[in-house]
Amino acid sequence: MLRLGKYSIGVGDRFAHQAKAQLQACTLAAKSGVEVIPVWNKSNREHTIIGSEPASVRAAADAAVRELGWTKPYHVDADHIRLETVDRFLPACDFYTIDVADSIGQPSPADAGDAFASRHPELLGTLTIPGVSAPFTTTQADVNRVAGKYLKAVKDAGAIYRKIAAAKGADGFITEVSMDETDEPQSPQELLLILAALADEGVPVQTIAPKFTGRFNKGVDYVGDVAQFEREFRDDLAVIAFAVKNFQLPANLKLSVHSGSDKFSLYAPMHRAIRETGAGLHLKTAGTTWLEEVIGLAESGGEGLALAKTIYAKALAKKDELCAPYATVIDIDASKLPPANEVQQWTSEQFVGALRHAPQNPQFNSSLRQLVHVGFKIAAQLGEQYLGMLRTCETAVARNVTGNLFDRHLKPLFIG
What we know:
It is a single chain. The protein is α/β, with parallel strands linked by helices. Helix content is about 50%, strand content about 10%. The protein contains 17 helices and ten strands. Strand 8, helix 7 and strand 9 form a beta-alpha-beta unit. Helix 6 packs parallel to helix 7 (about 225-245). The longest helix is centred in the middle third of the chain and has 29 residues, at about 140-170. It is globular. The mean pLDDT is about 95.
């Protein structure tokens, strides 16, 4: 089986121009003594918006690896795929994020809970798992509730996994299961039952992305109770260790934290937990690199700054359209979005100050940042005008991409 390394970082690259700068951050981590495996991820929705194909992600990753002489593993992720979208990813990808959030809550057979309980009588009653903050007490009613909510999603994950395995061979790819893009978080107790069901379904999941308590908005910090998150995170790590031992799941199974970019307040708690337990971790980022591109343009001044202002103005004019697909993962206060004619007068320092995620900076504007985050469709529509400016401003853009990924993500989370 193709195995994912202990620590890994999912890096989105909307326009396939920053793979080298992203990989440079992983080389800096390696020089600091920590191996973090890069996984380039791009979803079907992003490919559709950009007008790209999965082969472009593979080509960019391969080119960066050759240019930097990277000799460690790396992967290309078919991000958030479903049965109807997986085919286009099969030639290019070796990592598959199977997204079954839409299947959560869909009906399962009436006897599904009884059948699950008969397969796993050890999970009924009170169960004490080493490392979990409190024992689980699971009744047949609990099993029925979880089965009714999640077993259809697990069955769908199995169907997608088998389709990929038929095309690539069971040993030719890494499987992640994603349940994060849903309304309610999964408790550690629910995660245990989900993992048991995935094992029953024959899905060799190496990383699982649950929905955690709190808000994981795109490109900004966590909103919620950090102490509660840390308890849940540690409980989930313990549940995974128990599931690996008892359900014959892959030994390297680990948590995946989606929308993990810029969750600065969570990195210290997660770092403590993985160091103290020896657990692995996959952190998935996406739009952060796109934002660093815009920051690099603005930093460059002149035509780069002018284009950054144009992107903001066009995004502001299409705010509702751009925000609709991301409504559950952004919180934009429209009253805090400056008018386009005001931004047009900004200096480079003002634009960068508003966009760069530095909460201590009084110029930082979380609403503006989130709007630009979802506004990559504007750059896609600009086409060569945008791509050409990326090449013109490459030095500034690459510096921001590498520095952000290493200094603000890899270093606090994996190195400490």
